[in-house]
Amino acid sequence: MEIVFKICGQEVDPGKVKNPLTAAVLSRKAHATQKVLGPLKCSEHGGYPVVIFAGRNVENLTCKVGGCCNSFVQGITRRIQFML
Ligand SMILES: [Zn+2]
């Protein structure tokens, strides 16, 4: 699966963030997402989930999910709802 963080429109690598608080929040989200969606794969197309966290700052990130088809994306959304 793929997890992308975008803060103020810029892609951020949780492992390379200088602010320790931001890094902690991002890596916590990444781990939680991985735990919930990690083994998930589209049964029809074999596609993986794509999760994008985006926002103005780390406290205001919204989550968008993507995938190869609508039914897969719906399945991902249903799972990730419990986590957010
Ligand atoms: Zn699919």
Based on the model shown, name its key terms.
binds zinc ion; four-stranded mixed beta sheet; alpha+beta; 4 strands
Please tell me about this protein's structure.
By secondary structure, this protein is of the alpha+beta class. It has helices at residues 20-37, 70-81; strands at 2-7, 10-12, 50-55, 62-66. The protein has one domain (2-81). The protein has two helices and four strands, in the order E-E-H-E-E-H. The protein has a four-stranded mixed β-sheet. It is elongated, with a radius of gyration of 13 Å. The two termini are 18 Å apart. Bound molecules: zinc ion. Residues 42, 44-45, 47, 68-69, 72 line the site of zinc ion.
TL;DR?
The chain is of the alpha+beta class and 84 residues long. The protein is 36% helix and 24% strand.
SSE order and pairing:
Layout: E1 2-7, E2 10-12, H1 20-37, E3 50-55, E4 62-66, H2 70-81
Zinc ion binds at residues 42, 44-45, 47, 68-69, 72.
Q: Give me the strand/helix succession.
A: EEHEEH
Estimated helix fraction? 25-40%
Poorly predicted runs of 5 or more residues: none
Domains counted in the coordinates: how many? 1
Main sheet? 4 strands, mixed
Question: How many E-type strands?
Answer: 4
Overall geometry comes to elongated
Q: Whole-Å distance between the termini?
A: 18 Å
Structure ligands: zinc ion
- Would you tell me the structural class of the helices and strands? alpha+beta
Strand content: 15-25%
